[in-house]
Amino acid sequence: MEVSGTMRAVRITGHGGPDRLESVEVAVPVPRDGEVLVRVGAVALNNTDLWTREGSYGRPGAPDALSGWRGPIDFPRIQGADVTGRVAAVGPDAEERLVGRRVLVDPAIYDAGGPDANPVGLMGSERDGGYAEYVTVPVERVHDVTESPLTDDQLAALPIAYGTALGMIERGGVGEGETVVVSGASGGVGLALVQLARERGARVLAISSGSKVGSVREAGAHHVVDRAQDIIEQIRGVAPEGVDVVLDVVAGDLLGEGLPLLREAGRWVVAGALGGYDVKLDVRRLYLHNARIIGSAMHTPRHFDLLVELARRAGIQPVVAATFPLEQAARAQEELGRREHVGKIVMHP
User: Fold this and answer.
1) How far apart (Å, rounded) are the C-alpha atoms in residues 181 and 122?
2) Residues of the chain with CATH 3.90.180.10
3) CA distances from 186 to 22, 226, 343 (A)
4) Which residues pair with 330 in a beta bridge?
5) DSSP symbol at 3
6) Which of 107, 239, 255, 288 is most buried, most CB within 10 Å of its CB?
7) Closest CA to 23 of 326, 325, 340
8) Over the stretch 214-245, which tens digit does the pLDDT of each residue have?
9) Residue 301: strand, helix, or coil
């Protein structure tokens, strides 16, 4: 089966503001050997979309250099890493039985085969993504979720946010009964961390504020710390014995000031820098207490397999904050950038 003709897509023409997004008609991509063509049912937005468009990732030795997720980007680039849809066609060597199956796409590009490979690229940055009616995907990166009771919008909310969160939880070794702090708890990754850590049986202390507190509690937080007040003192008040793990997408001053909160052999897992990437800390609090600072960029194939199993049995319930048509991608990204929502923003081609 082949799909031909043109499709609607939204792509970035260079690094910059929302004006760099352009809506175009382009040829439907043709799946090559080892690929399938997915008709996009829903695509979710992530901070990665904003930072890739802005070129905010920097490069080794040049933190202020304009860069995509892992380096220079070939423009124009169709954005969008969070994709669910149905297989519309397969490449020459892929199995026809996949056609028509509802799939969840693992957006990572890995450095090797095997279940513990590291992500070194991303759909929407290092290859075209799902801000389009169709997208080609390596066949090993599509996972059949036809029978999942989750909606397409909920499934699209999973790959980056929940994949990143699950990677953090796995790398941090979060276990039942441990006390866990989640920063940025009302964002996509933060809310996923709250749900997944609670599902693991951890005691969850979430950092949030204002009108979002109720939603964070509803997601499973045992206690919510107000980020508008002294965060460190509030956590000490709730967990005077210290915490086992911090799952952090903020970094900045929180990391430097909060490191003494860790118990002996505690773990601080970092997967973002919303509060700033230039961190100052007392390294004595690190080595004298056998603490670990762990970097976590997304997930491995093994982590994503765990996520797919949760999706198939609806073991988690992603929160969808708003939906937009594809043509309003710039407006959707601006809404994401305001950070006034709780959950995920999703677009429909």
Assistant:
1) 28
2) 6-161+299-348
3) 30, 12, 7
4) none
5) -
6) 107
7) 326
8) 999 999 999 999 999 999 999 999 999 999 99
9) helix
Query: In the β-sheet with 203-208, what is the strand arrangement from edge to edge?
Result: 223-226, 203-208, 179-182, 243-248, 262-270, 292-295
Fold of 173-295: Rossmann fold (3.40.50)
pTM strictly above 0.85: yes
Give me the amino acid identity at 69.
W
Say if residues 329 and 306 touch (Cβ distance below 8 Å): no
Say what the pLDDT of residue 1 is.
59
| 321 CB-near residues (< 8 Å, 6+ apart) | 341, 342, 343, 344, 345
Give the chain's end-to-end CA distance (angstroms, integer). 22
Question: Would you say residue 333 has pLDDT above 70?
Answer: yes
Taking 3-state DSSP, the helix, strand and coil percentages for the chain, each rounded to the nearest 5, stand at 30, 30, 40
Sign of the Cα torsion 297, 302, 305, 306 reads: negative
Burial of residue 312 (number of CB atoms within 10 Å: 0-12, 13-18, 19+)? middle
**Residue 95, burial from CB neighbour count under 10 angstroms (0-12, 13-18, 19+):** exposed
In the chain, which segments carry CATH 3.40.50.720?
173-295
Q: CATH number for the 6-161+299-348 domain, one of 3.40.50.360, 3.30.390.30, 3.30.420.10, 3.90.180.10?
A: 3.90.180.10
| 167: helix, strand or coil | helix
Burial per residue of 129-145, b for 16 or more beta-carbon CB atoms within 10 angstroms, e otherwise: bbbbbbbbbbbebbbeb
How open is the CA angle 322-109-247, to the nearest 5 degrees?
A: 60
- Name the token pair of 345: 């923003």
Identify any residues that bridge with 142 across adjacent strands, giving them in sequence order.
105
Return the structure tokens found at 320: 């969808």
Return the structure tokens found at 346: 């999703």
